[in-house]
């Protein structure tokens, strides 16, 4: 079968052509190409017949991963380019995943999809079989990427639990809920009682879990969960600064702030210093991540350490196992309180 592009040029058949010829979804074709898991014998037969008829050539990169030879894996960040360059956690995770894959002679392909057009384009590229699997970073509620890749049968591991997909998709995460609880308990032991929080985005698993941990400890300690003490940010330094300004306006008597990322905590420190408040004498500040931003802050941040080396190595391990035919898996790793000068 000859495929013709616009202008009369011949083009090689694609996975879309195979799906149309076989009368099945693109996802079913991807699952057949990725080993035939969860595909009925009739559908597999139809896809194989369509491959022969169209002359479709399986992408050698995806096939090489399935057969155990080296190939590429996608590192997909569904955030803006600004977030990639600003957030030190992403670069630490990227480096760790690159090193873990290098041990298997598998290169990593960085993909940035910060808007709807980019996400659509990247999703088409992935589901066409150009990478053997995907490491997904920063999945927001309502973001269709994880769902579409899952439906297409693409091996996938998310950093953090993808909202709305339950146990369908593999993920590796730090224990956000317990980490937040440990930080807020620490602030309470210092005698702080008006403890505010700057949350991460509340359409992300980290934002939701860290806020839940904060509220649980306050309730357990018999302290009122005052909604005026809760403001949200987007993990950027600028959002931390503006959030702290709103918090100080709502609750000028705040004596501690739990901030859901170190980068936002830097912005909180800027706002506190500008207001004339001393840290930690007037307001204690705790962050989350133990990223390079915690050490460059002034004063240096007390924070919750995420085990980034383990997160990256576990993401790679789980993805390669899934490419090899294993079922989805969930890994939750413990965090650690690191005390410094900001509390």
Describe the structure.
This protein has 14 helices and 14 strands. With 343 residues, the chain is α/β, with parallel strands linked by helices. The chain is 46% helix and 15% strand. A hairpin with a 5-residue loop joins β1 (3-4) and β2 (10-11). Mean pLDDT is 88; it is low at 5-9 and 59-70. The strands form four sheets. The chain has a six-stranded parallel β-sheet, sandwiched between helices. Strands 9-8-10-11 form a four-stranded parallel β-sheet, sandwiched between helices. Strands 1-2 form a two-stranded antiparallel sheet. α1 crosses α3 and α6 packs across α14 (308-323). The N and C termini lie far apart (70 Å). The relative contact order is 0.12. It has helices at residues 15-22, 26-33, 41-54, 60-66, 81-86, 88-102, 116-130, 145-151, 176-189, 205-220, 237-250, 262-274, 292-296, 308-323; strands at residues 3-4, 10-11, 73-77, 108-112, 134-137, 156-159, 170-174, 195-199, 230-232, 256-259, 284-286, 303-305, 330-333, 336-338.
């Amino acid at each position: 079968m000859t495929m013709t592009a616009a202008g009369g040029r011949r083009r090689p058949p694609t996975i879309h052509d195979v799906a149309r010829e076989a009368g099945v979804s693109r996802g079913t074709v991807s699952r057949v190409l990725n080993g035939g898991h969860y595909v009925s014998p009739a559908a597999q037969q139809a896809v194989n017949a369509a491959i022969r008829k169209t002359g479709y050539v399986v992408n050698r990169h995806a096939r090489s991963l399935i057969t155990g030879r080296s190939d590429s894996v996608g590192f997909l960040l569904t955030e803006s380019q600004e977030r990639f360059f600003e957030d030190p956690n992403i670069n630490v995770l990227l480096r760790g995943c690159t090193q873990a894959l290098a041990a298997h002679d598998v290169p990593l392909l960085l993909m940035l999809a910060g808007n709807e057009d980019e996400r659509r384009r990247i999703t088409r590229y992935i589901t066409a079989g150009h990478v053997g699997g995907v490491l997904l970073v920063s999945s927001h509620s309502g973001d269709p990427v994880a769902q579409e890749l899952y439906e297409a049968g693409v091996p996938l591991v998310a950093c953090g639990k993808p909202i709305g997909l339950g146990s369908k998709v593999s993920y590796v995460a730090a224990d956000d809920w317990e980490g937040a609880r440990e930080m807020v308990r620490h602030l309470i032991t210092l005698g702080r009682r008006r403890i505010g929080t700057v949350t991460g985005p509340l359409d992300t698993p980290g934002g939701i879990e860290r806020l839940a941990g904060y509220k649980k400890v306050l309730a357990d300690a018999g302290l009122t969960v005052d909604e005026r003490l809760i403001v949200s940010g987007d993990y950027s330094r600028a959002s931390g600064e503006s959030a702290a300004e709103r918090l100080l306006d709502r609750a000028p008597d705040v004596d501690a702030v739990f901030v859901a990322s170190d980068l936002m905590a830097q912005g909180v420190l800027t706002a506190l210093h500008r207001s004339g408040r001393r840290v930690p004498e007037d307001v204690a500040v705790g962050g989350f991540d133990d990223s390079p931003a915690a050490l460059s802050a002034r004063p240096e941040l007390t924070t919750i350490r995420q085990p980034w080396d383990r997160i990256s190595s576990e993401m790679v391990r789980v993805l390669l196992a899934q490419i090899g035919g294993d079922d989805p898996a969930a890994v939750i790793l413990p965090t650690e309180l690191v005390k410094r000068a900001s509390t």
